[in-house]
Amino acid sequence: MKTIAGLVGLTAIALTLSPAVAHAQDANCYDTTVPLTVEEQRLDDTLVAGGPAVGPALVQLAGFDGRVTDFTAKLCRQIAPKQAQQFVQREGNALWKAAVARAQSTTPVTHDAYDDRPLYWARLQLSSALRQWTPRFAMAPNDRAKLVQQFDWASRGLSDSAFPSKPGVRRIAVTGFDPFQLSGVNVRRANPAGAAALQLDGREISTPSGKVVLQASVLPVLWGGFDEGVVEQFYGSALQQKPDAFVTISQGRPGRFDVERWAARWRGGFADNNNIGSFGSVPNAAGWPQPANEFIETSLPFQKMIDAGTGPFTVNFNRAFCEWVVVGSQQSCRTDEPTPGRVAASGGGGDYLSNESMYRANRLRIGYGATNVLGGHLHTPVLGQPADPAALTDSAFEKQRRDIADQVKALVSVV
After folding, report:
1. Which pTM value belongs to this model?
2. Buried/exposed code over 15-50 (b: 16+ C-beta within 10 A; e: otherwise)
3. Is the pLDDT at 13 greater than 60, yes or no?
């Protein structure tokens, strides 16, 4: 069990992972007074007073700390916009591939291979560096934002989403999510949906009905990222490759899996990883087809998934939904059918980004007329936290995450 007390020696390491290293090497390369996002500011969060920062400690445990140091040094040497764009694209993609390779390693690794958190925190360290970088050339704020987005999307697997050209295999595109609700000691939280995505990316799985090949991405827990079209970008690329199914995946309810029947065109206002809320109808994504469905029904083979006999968790088909009787003040919540003409209030997956990932992916599928492509959402059981409040991990926590991710793999392979 790795406790914060047992990781005190990592404090110095964690400190060297910040852009301050490169800043010390080149006084003109980083401006550490530039504000970071709320999400990036959590890189300093600890579990105990005087202990090491949790995010950098997890990055170090997974062996990604060298990538962070190398990135911050090389970023200082970029001398032209095009060179910088190529650099961040390459580095983002390399980080994603390294995380997938580590997750799927067939040889033992020094830290739990199923841990999704090192990728999340390494990504934030590198996006922080990009935000505080002072390049040798003029760069407008909008250009910097594009550079950060380019890196972010690449490090989520969006640049590595090509299915192999193999005849006779089923192609399934899946997405998980970053960790979320990270305030206080919850900063150590993981997300089993993200862990499952890392386990699935690029996998070829043999099933009784033939081989299944998967491509995966990990989505941000950010309303702004969804507004920028990250969901459409991944699933739009998948649609060009004639997939057989879409499965959006997120963490849901304690103790069970849920195949959600309905996705709703509504945001309920809950704060994201930048502590920003959003309330109202799901916005359109520029440049993509936008049918105006209030609800979208799953087309996943839910009974087949229930009957597949996966375990250890039960699998449920969740028929619940809510619609507005009076928008903003009165809802009707049921398990039958939505009322034609009423505004959606929540799907089976609620009114947060889980629901919206299902809605956006399947709105795109419907918008392109890809009715032969199955689509829907799978909610995983809730993953707990290590028993010791000062621990980054323990065996029970790791086993639960592994059990959930492995059952996701089994469920997705029968779609």
Report:
1. 0.93
2. eebbbebbbeeeeebbeeeeebbebbebbebbbeee
3. no
